[in-house]
Structures are given as C-alpha cells and as structure tokens.
Amino acid sequence: NSGSQREAAQGGGSTSRTLGGQRREERLRRFRELHMKRYEACKLNSQEVVEEDKRLKLPPNWEAKKARLEWELQVQEKKKECAARGEDYERVKLLEISAEDAERWERKKKRKNPDLGFSDYAAAQLRQYQRLTRQIKPDLEQYEKLKEQYGEALYPTSDSLLHGTHVPSKEGVDRMVADLEKQIEKREKYSRRRPYNDDADIDYINERNAKFNQKAERFYGKYTAEIKQNLERGTAV
C-alpha cells in the first residue's frame, strides 16, 4: 500500500510539473508575441514620423504640383500614342470628355474669370491688362543671358538711368506687332449695342412712355397686330 501511494504521489508530481512547464511555455510564447507586436508598432511609428517630417518640409502646394506633373506626363503619353496611330489628339480628347465634365469645367472657368459686364473704364482697362499679362510667356533663356551680361545692373534702382538703354529684340517686336494686330482684328468684330433702333417707328412721347409701349408690345403685340395694321391702313371698323 505504501509503495502504491509513493508511485501515485510521484505520478501526481510529474503531472503538476508538466502542467507548470506548459503554462510557462505558453506565457513565454505570449510574451514573445507581445514583444514582436511592440517592435512592429515602434517601427511603424518611426516610419510615420519620418514621412510626416518629409511632408512638413515640402512646399504647401506640393500635392497639387505633383498631381499636375502626373497629369502632364499622362497627356504626353497620350499625345505620343495618338501620333503613332496617326490621330488628332485634340479630337480624341474631346471624344473622351463627358457632358458632365464639360459643364463642370465651364462653370469653374466662369467662377475663375467672371464677366461682370461694363462698370467703368478703369475696370475694363484692368480686365484687359490682366488678360494680356496672362498670355505673356517669359523667355527664361534670354533672361539668363541678360543677367550674365549686365549683372546687378539688370535690376534698376532709383539712381538707374533707364531711358534709351533698352533695345528690344526683333522677335519681341514681331510678337508685339502680332498681338496688336490680333487686338485690332478683335475690336473690329465688336459692335456696340444700340439703345434703340433708328428705323423703328416713333410711337412714344418720352422715355417712360417708350418703356411702357415696349412692355405692352411684348405681352399683347401678337393679339393686337391685326388691329394696329387696320388702324394704319384706315380700314378699322
């Protein structure tokens, strides 16, 4: 009996040691998993800090510039593909634009440069000036040559003598002449709206009466046309 009790006690002890070892291995495994998760979190956090620091050092409009450059690259690729197929890129581009996109771009263009009509000559002159300056494309190559040639003298101060020192290039003169001819051609096509028709019948005694007659004609003209013709011919009953 005592031997069997010792064997049972030994068996129970070995079983408890086995369970203790398993629990210890489980705790170590969970500890290693937590340690690896902590390491991965620290690594990802460091990467995010580095990326955020890079983004903060970039210009504020970097995302817009990047999107613009990517769009320009796509346009260049499409132009090459169209040239290889012998197609007109502008025609292909218009075929790919949906009606919704065209309306949205038109609304955006109107918001960007709305035509408010004529208010005064100063506002009209400012609008003309802004339109002309937007068309100017600076020649950076010529600018670099002038900067090498004149140095600091290229940037005038209050003591600089400017009259008669600048000689425009032939290309610049031709560009100015072409622009002026384009403005003259556009101005000739413009026709000022007349406040009244010189050939129309005068059936009013003052400006207020003329406005009233116009409103009456607009609303009742189609009903009274025959009566008016009979009165003019003298055949009215």
Automatic annotation (TrEMBL):
- Its chief place of residence is nucleus
Bilayer-crossing regions:
none
Q: Which InterPro entries match?
A: mRNA_splic_SYF2
| A Pfam cross-reference name | SYF2
Write out the entry's keywords from A to Z: mRNA processing, mRNA splicing, Nucleus, Spliceosome
Record's signal peptide: none
The highest taxon in the source lineage is Eukaryota
- Gene Ontology terms: cellular component: catalytic step 2 spliceosome; post-mRNA release spliceosomal complex; Prp19 complex
- List where in the cell it is found: Nucleus
Q: Which GO terms describe its biological process?
A: mRNA splicing, via spliceosome
Q: Where is this region: Disordered?
A: 1-26
Family listed:
Belongs to the SYF2 family.
**Subunit structure of this entry?**
May be part of a spliceosome complex.
Function text: Involved in pre-mRNA splicing as component of the spliceosome.
Write down the PANTHER family for this protein, in alphabetical order: GCIP-INTERACTING PROTEIN P29, PRE-MRNA-SPLICING FACTOR SYF2
What name goes with this protein? Pre-mRNA-splicing factor SYF2
Q: Which organism is it from?
A: Lanius ludovicianus (Loggerhead shrike)
* Taxonomic placement: Eukaryota, Metazoa, Chordata, Craniata, Vertebrata
